[in-house]
Amino acid sequence: MGIIDIGVWPESEGFKDHGMTKKIPNKWKGSCEEVQDFNTFMCNFKLIGARYFNKGVIAANSKVKISMNSTKDTSAHGTHTSSTLQATMLMEPLTLAMLKVWLKPGFPCIR
Length: 111
Hints:
- There is one protein chain.
- 25% of the residues lie in helices and 0% in strands.
- It contains three helices and no strands.
- It has helices at residues 55-60, 77-91, 96-102.
């Protein structure tokens, strides 16, 4: 699953890789970029990549103030959005009874 947002908070429970296979898919071509307040050790077998992109914003508006050049979420929006998307991907096949057990921040089987 890929998402473009303001970043993620890798310390969040939803990004822990407990119970996941300890193998990154062979087809994965991304990277975990070391930048301000985010190092490569923050990625794991669930959060397998993180990059930031702001050159287009700066090119369009050279006077824009960027608070941080990082993939680190500073407002919780990106973390919330990505963990919500993880839950949505699994909701359809589950019954309401199962939702009570499974619905929690993040799911172990989604990267």
